[in-house]
């Protein structure tokens, strides 16, 4: 299996490229619209063909590249069935492996950050989206977020996986690339260290985070699998324009 971790610095988003060496097919997990050219160039360099884009949830901080990738190279769009996106070609459900060549993602419904959030497990890798970050987690104060649900998702499903399972999050803001379940159970200040549900509720209720600056454009755009608004404020135009440089993670 071919694996690459790619980083988009504007929203600090990790996109994951998985390629099947037998069939030459590839998938991109959480692709970002501003890094389409970089991602397609990497796929071409590796001699792969993009079969699917796969999102973990409806993002609030960037526009997914799913629709634009489909327009450019004919890849199909896979997204959680929970969100009932009419633009998705495949609805992903827990208990139904998502297979592309020799790659078989095991979907895990992990609500809390958003109601329709999914994590994807493949062999020893776990792509956690925003549900579980490295020593953190996604916020729960918008998009039907629910602290109780997130606590149950992480402690009941993700922390139940083998300790050596590698944690690959959708974001990191401190240049960290990977963790593991054992490390998060031990060091995560919100959900690890045997935190109780009551403690987690209090932590999440007192984060006092600012309102996401791009959410009012990103959510409706991502509900259409990646549509950039026609009229963005000047300070937000960079979220939909192609960046001249986006380093590979």
From TrEMBL:
Q: Name one Pfam family in it.
A: Lactamase_B
Taxonomically, the superkingdom here is Bacteria
User: Where do the Metallo-beta-lactamase domain residues begin and end?
Assistant: 12-171
Question: SUPFAM superfamilies, from UniProt?
Answer: Metallo-hydrolase/oxidoreductase
User: What are this entry's molecular-function GO terms?
Assistant: hydrolase activity; metal ion binding; sulfur dioxygenase activity
Record has Metal-binding as a keyword:
yes
Give the residue range of the signal peptide: none
The record's annotation in Gene3D superfamilies points to:
Ribonuclease Z/Hydroxyacylglutathione hydrolase-like
Keywords attached to this Swiss-Prot or TrEMBL record, sorted alphabetically, are: Hydrolase, Metal-binding
Biological process (GO) annotations held by this record are: glutathione metabolic process; hydrogen sulfide metabolic process
Against PANTHER family, the record matches this protein to: PERSULFIDE DIOXYGENASE ETHE1, PERSULFIDE DIOXYGENASE ETHE1, MITOCHONDRIAL
Please identify the protein, giving its name as recorded. Answer: Zn-dependent hydrolase
In its UniProt entry, the species of origin is given as Rugosibacter aromaticivorans
